[in-house]
Amino acid sequence: LWQKVVDHFRGRVTFVQIGEVNPSHLHPPLDGALNLVGKTTTRELFRLVRYATAGTGPVTFLHHVSAAFGVPYVC
Q1: pLDDT grade, residue 50 (50/70/90)?
Q2: CA atoms of 68 and 6, how far apart (whole Å)
Q3: Across all residues in the chain, what is the average pLDDT?
Q4: How far is Cα 54 from Cα 28, in angstroms, rounded to an integer?
Q5: Which of 61, 70, 67, 68 has the alpha carbon at shortest distance from 25?
Q6: How far apart are CA 17 and CA 37, in angstroms?
Q7: How confident is the model at residue 1 (pLDDT cuts 50, 70, 90)?
Q8: CA atoms within 13 A on the CB side of 41
């Protein structure tokens, strides 16, 4: 599903993939997305969200951070 979203907007939207490296968290790399899985601190995540146009994914910590910054988030 997420690869189809990235493909649909390729060349028009820059996607950044984030997440925690954890055996119970699945983050298969997306072709065409900047892969920052396991590479950001909480502060860096906040900065990414603050300057993002929008976010997407399941209801997670990112969803709540997006709401705090007033960044639209699609589940």
Answers
A1: very high
A2: 25
A3: 95
A4: 21
A5: 61
A6: 6
A7: confident
A8: 2
pTM higher than 0.70 for the full model? yes
Find the helix or strand (DSSP H, E) in which 56 lies.
strand 55-56
9: left (phi over 0), alpha (psi -120 to 50) or beta: alpha
* Amino acid at position 61, single letter: F
Give the DSSP per-residue string, 1-49.
Answer: -HHHHHHHTTTT--EEE-----TTS--PPPTTEEE-TT---HHHHHHHH
What was the pLDDT predicted at 41? 96
| CA distance from start to end of the chain | 12
